[in-house]
Design brief:
With 391 residues, this protein is an alpha+beta fold. 26% of the residues lie in helices and 23% in strands.
């Protein structure tokens, strides 16, 4: 009879419990390495946080305590002032600083409009005008304009007598420039004067200051002998800009005019000294004139990252000087900035979130202005008939 079976050595291996075996040592090391890696990652993150904190503190010191930082801070504040969120600028320059800045610009713009303009123009002979190659000069030419952070267009009108002021055609509401161009048969159009815009929801019907068309006063919220900043053209095609009373303008033979400011070039001299005084970065519309009588309309897009952030008035001034302007003035810019060609095609990219804006006035170019009649939409209306709060 075989002996009773005994446990095989291979069937019940001795337990490693309580004894350090070969499988326990790698596990312990793995846990230790994981803890070390975690501590290392947290250490790196902590050091990065401290470095970023120090850099941020250094940036704040530079931003608020150095002349170069102050220059950037005020330029940023000026940019915000040109938007519908003007009050946000107080976080950069303080509430008192914001009030002082706005007052400073108002005073500066007033002073820039004081010098009397004496430029003379050689009015072109319309279609008979020729260039150096003895070829007829087209009435309108558009060229792109590019600079540091901005993109825009320059419209040149060779005959200033072909420029007229268009006004909205609907009582109680402004009109898009595309609509004005199509309705009147114009070959080009650019936004013109400003308008009452409470809470940035104005309907574009109530102008600010004055509107003069075909030598007649269409609208005014000032007295006949009260001066204001204007941009216009007289009956001979000479551009007029600066501070004038309505009676002065009528004596000068004004034909078309709107209120806006500032005038940035007078008698061939730029009025803005540097970027610091350029009233921030924004979409811009500027009107100017060369010695040969040509009218220049500069349209610069803005508030669109990756395409065009915008320009300050110093940028606009230098562009106009480079193109031969002897007089130039700022027009309503920002969300109103638009350049339209024949048929209502928009050339630039307006920044308005609502699309093209409804405006009271626009500068229009015609092949034959004598065939165009502009009706006074504000005739017979009182202040109670004009509600700028409607959109």
């Amino acid at each position: 009879m075989p002996p009773l079976s005994t446990p095989s050595p291979s069937s019940n291996p001795p337990s490693n419990s309580g004894h350090p075996g070969k499988g326990a040592e790698p596990l312990s090391r793995t846990r230790t390495n994981r803890k070390r890696r975690k501590r290392s990652v947290w250490g790196i993150l902590l050091r990065l946080f401290v470095v970023m904190l120090l850099l941020f503190a250094l940036f704040l010191a530079w931003f608020f305590l150095t002349p170069s930082g102050e220059s950037l801070r005020y330029r940023m504040a000026d940019t915000i002032i040109t938007t519908q969120h003007r009050e946000w600028a107080k976080y950069l320059v303080g509430e008192d600083g914001l009030k002082e800045r706005v007052a400073q610009y108002a005073k500066q713009f007033e002073e820039m409009g004081e010098e009397r303009d004496t430029h003379e123009i050689a009015v072109p002979a319309g279609a008979e005008q020729e260039n150096n190659a003895n070829e007829p000069v087209p009435l309108t030419q558009i060229e792109p304009v590019d600079g540091d952070g901005y993109h825009g267009y320059l419209l040149t009108v060779s005959d200033p007598k072909k420029v007229r002021l268009g006004v909205t055609s609907t009582k109680g509401k402004g009109e898009k420039v595309t609509s004005m161009v199509k309705r009147t048969g114009a070959i080009a159009g650019v936004n013109a004067g400003g308008f009452a815009d409470p809470n940035w929801k104005g309907n574009g019907f109530q102008p600010i200051g004055l509107v003069i068309s075909q030598g007649k006063v269409f609208y005014r919220d000032i007295g006949m002998d009260q001066n204001t900043q204007i941009v216009g053209i007289d009956k001979d095609g000479k551009m007029i800009a600066g501070r004038y009373t309505i009676n002065e303008l009528l004596k000068l033979g004004i034909s078309e005019a709107v209120s806006f400011a500032p005038r940035i070039i007078v008698n061939g001299k730029g009025q803005i000294k540097n970027h610091k005084d350029g009233w921030g970065i924004a979409p811009r519309t500027v009107m100017g004139q060369k010695e040969d009588g040509s009218i220049l309309f500069l349209v610069i897009d803005g508030r669109q990252l990756g395409y065009s952030v915008g320009a300050d008035l110093y940028d606009a001034q230098q562009i106009m000087l480079d193109h031969g302007a002897v007089i130039a003035a700022n027009l309503d810019g920002g969300s109103s900035t638009v350049l339209v060609t024949e048929g209502g095609e928009i050339v630039n990219k307006p920044s308005s979130t609502h699309g093209e804006r409804y405006l009271p006035t626009a500068w229009l170019v015609f092949e034959d202005p004598s065939t165009v009649t502009t009706n006074n939409i504000w005739s017979g209306l009182t202040s109670k008939d004009i509600d700028p709060a409607k959109w």
